[in-house]
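Students often ask why we bother predicting the structure of a whole assembly rather than each chain alone. The short answer is interfaces. A chain on its own may look different once its partners are present, and contacts between molecules only exist in the joint model. In this exercise we take two input lines together and write out one structure for the complete complex. Read the inputs first and try to guess which parts will touch.
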Amino acid sequence: QLQLQESGPGLVKPSETLSLTCAVSGGSISTDNRYWGWVRQPPGKGLEWLATIYYTGLTFYNPSLKSRVAMSVDTSRNQFSLRLSSVTAADTAVYYCARHYDHLFDFWGQGALVTVSS
Amino acid sequence: QSALTQSRSVSGSPGQSVTISCTGTSSDVGSYNHVSWYQQHPGKAPKLMIYDVSKRPSGVPDRFSGSKSGDTASLTISGLQAEDESDYYCCSYAGTYTWVFGAGTKLTVL
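Now the answer. The structure tokens for the assembled complex follow.
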């Protein structure tokens, strides 16, 4: 069974860069036609798609965040990462990594709460 | 890219049917049959319930069904059960390799 696990700092200072990694187990990140994405959820609010990556490094970003967001993939470690720069309190959220293909998200990590505060 | 519009809350009694709507635009829901629905219990990760408007992943009860008309997609839950009480989110492909979620609907089973 495919499993995803987010990791990274739970507290980030305003104006700094948020960095999270998603480790994939139970399957290869390099599987054809399987993409990998990030979705976040501010406290008490809805879901927001952030970005998606293919194992080749091809990336797709939410236009509203495009200037601040970046994804990368490490096939040797079977993991992918998210970087969000110049964070503010509005970026405080639970960040989920998920397998993303054929326009659906079928396997999700448990989520990682990241708080932006000085 | 604006969030898809969902009613904030809906309720029903056990055994009844409820429908949750998700309204987008001609640029997302109206243009693509790539609408998915997710169930999210408090403190848990979302779970895929419906994809491509009306397809159910294996393991999802057939009480859950989806449909679409124009710019609005709908999730119908029939034979409502207590464990269906949850938040539900729709998601649509919005073109140019972007996706947009709805704001979420809280389902209460009375």
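Check your guess against this: The longest strand of chain B covers residues 86-93.
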